[in-house]
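Materials and Methods. Structural model of Amidase. The 484-residue sequence of Amidase from Glaciimonas soli was retrieved and submitted for structure prediction as follows.
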Amino acid sequence: MISLRLENCMQDTTYLSATDLLTRFRDGSLDPVDYFEVLAVAAERQQATINCAAGLFLEQGRNMAHESRRRYAEGTARPLEGVPVIIKEETSVKGWPCPQASLVFKDNVAVENHPIVDKLLNAGAIPFFQATNPEFCVLGHTWSKMYGVTRNPWAQAYSVGGSSGGSGAALAAGVAPLATGSDMAGSIRLPASLCGVYGYKPPSGRLPCAPGSEYMTQAVVGPMTRSFDDLVLMQNALGGPHPTSFTTLPYTELPTEYGDLSGMRIAYSPAFGHPALARDIERNLLQALDGLRQRGAIVEEVALRWDLDEINMVLLDGLRAMYADEFMTDISDADAEKLCSYTAHMRQQASEDQPSIMPSAVLGQKLHRDMQEKVWSKGYTAFICASMLTTDLAADQDPVAQPFLELGGHKVDANLGWCLTPAFNLLNRYPVLAAPTGLSELGVPTGMQIVANAYDDETVFRVASNHARAGTSRLFVDQFPVLG
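The predicted structure was written out as tokens:
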């Protein structure tokens, strides 16, 4: 039984941003312990419908919230003091299970924190919610034999994307204002777009990676949040070196305030010339571009014609060579029975061929030269495109059982053929920020990718700041999911 006081508090505070939370914690108008109890209720309630929790660590969170209360009283609060945070299951928290959503590894427990977890803890944040991901994080949706199907809070029949789908869903369900994600082929940007939140794929080396992942330059960790200001806040908390990471670049904090876009030239290509882009996604994208024009930008379409099938195949081969095949071939035939269809299919591929990372490097260079010729050398500072071709994706879509999708009369590969994200994992030094653009006709959020040239992080944040100020998307402003 929930008290009326707590119910009223839930209505008032569930969707507060971390930025607003910190202000209220500091001025004493909201207590970290009371707020944590609000989110504990939200975390438990969503599981019956959304199913985005791999684990709940409420007592640990309560203890940390009491510590935050003490620090505010003593004047020793840290930058994220008392802010609850969602942690993707793949991202290790010492003492938490880390099976990678696989029954094969169901007994695995993390023996140390991922570097970004250490950074969150050092900043005073409260990890308490472990979010679902697909098995081994190799699917663009979020379902597994271990956790079942994670559903979209905006429209529960539809996909939250993957592999950071649990993080996106938990943000949309009001579980916490901040979440971690990781991105090998769009795994931050796809869920961010489908759940109506912000997500950042930083350039390789910008944030510390897990020990052993240093050479997987296509894959990065990054922040996911409901508001733009929170994305800046979280990215700044995660930046900088960590003792276990030798590849992290020096970090200069991002500004928290940005001017308008007067004089900035922005190029766009809705879907790299792909004919299957849904009209509602394109409509929302064009409205967002009009908002940027109102903020002073010069926005012009450019003719990029990229072979998405080739990009997807080359990226997947590279990821298999660097990541998946290493342990897929070590799984016994007995354990293979426990695998999901999509990982069993990958295991079968691993036994039949030998993928290489070299085509990824070659194609990445080709794509960069095309961007250089048509975008960067022409005076454009940023580039924008949609995040995906469609939102009509079932929550439990299985690309093994249904290898192709029909999109507007065009047949595309069901695995990654609907995604517009993988090119920027080949161009892995490019910063890419996913921002919400509105709702599709199905009631599922849509999103866009804001891209800049290598290591020009500040530009994508400047554009995203102006997008947020333009207000063409009303998601989590005056439009919210109805969870039921």
